[in-house]
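(Fold this chain)
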Amino acid sequence: MGIMVRVLQVVFLVSHLTLLITVYSDVNCQNFKFVIDEDVVYNHILEGHVFRRLTVYSAAQCHVTCKDDCLCVSMNYFPVSQENNCELNDVDKAMESAAMKWNPGVNYYDLVRSYTVKGGGKYIPGKHRCINRCCNPNPCVNGGVCQEICDPYSMRFTCACPDTYTGQRCEKIKYPRNCQDIAKNGAPGSGMYPIFNSTNEAFSVYCDMKSEPGFVLGIDPIVFFC
C-alpha cells in the first residue's frame, strides 16, 4: 500500500511538472518591425496624445525609443527639426482617428508589433499566456494592478485601478474635488472643468490655474476657494 501511494505521488509530481513545462512553453515573443517607407503617414501628425518629446538623429532611433517604452504605440517624427523631433504617443491612428491632422513636414509612424509563441507558432489570445515584460517593473501607480496585452492593435498593457483613480496608469483622480485635483490630473490651463461633491455628483466650475493655488470661479458666478 505504501509503495502504491509513493508511485502515485511520483506520477502526480511528474504530471504536474509536465503541465508547468507545457504552460511556460506557451509564453509568447514580441516582435517589432520598422521600415522607413512603410507604416508611415507623411505630412500628418497625431495630436493631443504625446507623453514624451526627445531629440533623435533619425526616424529609426525614434522607433527604438518608442519600442522600449511600453506606453508608446505610435510616434510623430520631424525630419527637418534639430530638437525635440521625436514625439511618443500613447494611442495610434486606429484608436483615435480624429486626432490625425495634416501637418507638412511631420511624419506619423505606427509601432508595428506581432506576437508569436516560442518556436514560431501563432500567438492565440486566451490559449497562450501573454508576456511582453511591460509589467516589470509595474507601471501602474496608486495601487493599480498591471496586466500585459499582446494585441498589436491595442495598448501594450492595462492597469486595473482602485475605485478612486483612473487613467492608463491609474495616475488621475477619478472624482476631483477641487481645482487642485484638476491640476494634479494634468489640466492644460485655466478653463471649465467638472468637479465632484461628496456623493460623486458632478458640476462645472472655472479653474484659474494662473492665480493662487486652488482658486476657482463657479459658473453661478460664485467665487470661492477650494
